[in-house]
Specification:
There is one protein chain. By secondary structure, the chain is an alpha/beta fold. The protein has two domains: 136 residues, NAD(P)-binding Rossmann-like Domain (Rossmann fold); 179 residues, Dihydrodipicolinate Reductase, domain 2 (2-Layer Sandwich). Helix content is 36%, strand content 21%. Strand 8 and strand 9 form a beta hairpin. It is globular, with a radius of gyration of 20 Å.
Length: 338
């Protein structure tokens, strides 16, 4: 007799959630049993085998082998995953904010291998598994990354001469930015993601508030400032970094000027990218789409498949690594506030 399909509950069925549900249907060993939604009447493309929709969290969680959390936020999402964990389910999340800010709850689950969270950073581009896997063989020296596509879009529009307000309005019209864009343009989204990455490669108990104090966004950038950089052969990006000054680990999210030949520029427009420098492996560049329903679904489905196969999720470091000697800045020039 064939084993029954593994039952998957999806919390959230917006653009990303709907893409995840459609993608899960490609795997006959999986059954999307229920999806938690706020509005039962909202139109959704949920594929050929749509799940039962419910606004009741308990009904959504009942009997689930794997629970996929795509709600965003930190409080409700963490509470529902706590219920799922207590019920014995494996957890999959794309929620970088909850992972960053509620580590006292999520950390023990991650340490136990019960959470897949590849999609929490750079969507379907595999950086979480890389840092928790093959790159762990090298002592980390530095990490620099583009982690927010909205900021990249806004900067590219301003490079073309458009002012910040007009660029932001266009990003909102295209669905790249929320009505309240603060998480993106003030650097908080990138800060959440940097917190997740730093815990995987150097600082397993790094607190969000420590990172939050080192976060600056892009509101002070103007077409005039960007044009002045271009005349020097440089371009601005919002860069998230982890590096060593020799005495301690440093971390920051801030606008920075990069030369035209820098690997974070050469990956091209609209892409997220990460440069990891390790003592044995040297410099590694990982680049790809960092947002979008289909790209995020790719990583979420992979985590679900790992969970039903009984393989553990990415493990944090067991202890903090000592800071290495001061690392080169990869030609990154931090921009002042104005």
């Amino acid at each position: 007799m064939d084993a029954r399909p593994s039952r998957v509950a999806v919390l959230g069925a917006g653009t990303v959630g709907a893409a995840v549900i459609r993608s899960l249907q490609r795997h006959p060993q999986l059954q999307v049993a229920a999806a938690l939604v706020r509005n039962l009447r909202a139109p959704r493309d949920l594929g050929d085998r749509p799940p039962r929709l419910t606004a009741d969290p308990d009904e959504a969680l009942e009997g689930a082998d794997v629970v996929v959390e795509l709600l965003g936020g930190t409080e409700l999402s963490t509470e529902l995953m706590r219920r799922a964990a207590e019920g014995g389910a494996r957890l999959v999340s794309a929620n970088k904010a909850a992972l960053a800010e509620r580590w006292e709850v999520w950390g023990p689950w991650v340490a136990a291998g019960r959470v897949g969270f590849e999609a929490s950073v750079m969507a379907g581009t595999p950086v979480v598994s890389a840092l928790a896997g093959p790159l762990r063989g090298s002592r980390p020296l530095a990490l620099h990354a583009l982690l927010n596509g909205t900021c990249g879009f806004l900067i590219e529009r301003m490079e073309a001469g458009e002012d910040f307000a007009s660029a932001l309005a266009e990003a909102q019209r295209r669905g790249y930015a929320e009505a309240d864009p603060a998480l993106d343009v003030d650097g908080l989204d990138a800060g959440h993601k940097l917190t997740v990455l730093a815990r995987l490669c150097a600082l397993p108990e790094l607190g969000w508030e420590r990172v939050r104090r080192e976060v600056r966004g892009i509101r002070t950038l103007t077409p005039e400032r960007l044009a002045a950089l271009a005349r020097r052969g440089r371009r601005a990006r919002l860069v998230a970094s982890l590096w060593s000054d020799g005495a301690s680990w440093r971390f920051a999210v801030r606008p920075a000027a990069l030369p035209e030949h820098h690997p974070l520029i050469c990956v091209g427009p609209g892409r997220n990218a990460l440069v990891f420098r390790g003592d044995l492996v040297g410099e590694v560049l990982i680049a790809g789409p960092g947002a979008g329903g289909e790209a995020t679904a790719s990583a979420v489905v992979a985590d679900v498949l790992e969970a039903v196969a009984g393989r553990p999720g990415p493990a944090p470091l067991e202890r903090e690594l000592p800071p290495p000697p001061p690392s080169a800045a990869l030609e990154i020039e931090e921009l002042p506030e104005s």
